[in-house]
Structure prediction request, 268 residues.
Amino acid sequence: MKLRHIAALGGLLAGSIFSLTPVNLTAAPPAKQATPAITEEASAALLRMGQTLRAAALSFQARTIRVYSDANGEPLHIFHTMKVTMQRPNHLLVEGTGDDGSNKLIFDGKTAIIYSAAQNKYASIAVPEGTIEGMMKEAVGRLGVDFPLADFLSEAPAKAFLSGVTAGRVVNSVTIDGAPYDHLFFSQPPGIELELWLSKNDQSLPRRLIVTYRSLPGQPNFIAEFSDWNLNIHPSGADFVFQPPAGAAQVELKPIAAAAPAKKKGAK
Prediction:
């Protein structure tokens, strides 16, 4: 995904499922330079990460914090915890809980279903391409759904993460819970900074991610801390089947409203 967003899964139903509104950032053309200034050490760490995350199936948990400015310019925080289970190439389950309630995103290879426990409502969309990446493109393009960790679930995680990035380096090595990690820093125009902590071994599994938006008011950011990586799971098709709870109502998803023609300056 070329654009970085601040969100959990975007507003989908009235009152919104995963009720955070995504902030779209249009990338400006990078400054002219002979080659991307990404060091060999940083590239190698990301390559190892990408190879690891291309496992046939995996699961992990992530605790996330979205920091944003409200109408008064005051910084506010929204917390989420999510469990992600994926089976390539076309099954995904995201179970999230947070300040806006519990939600699920389920993809069985043909249909993506989004469920809000707080509203006991769900909606579905058909996915013609039939892959996880195709589902993400369909949901983002048609409905404004956003999943900020999607790069890690793509067919080429390292390539997806570096899309739009013009510079990157390893800052240093740190110890987290007794284990060594590489702390990496990347820049993506216009004014997006990414910090990524990868385990200092052959797997290079992500441990932390921080995305900071320097060009937005208040310089908001998105923070994720990963845990419980499992690359040896064997999910069944039944794990990706949605069973509506008692009384759950199915609703139609409305496409994203067209942007208003006014406010040309700074419009996205």
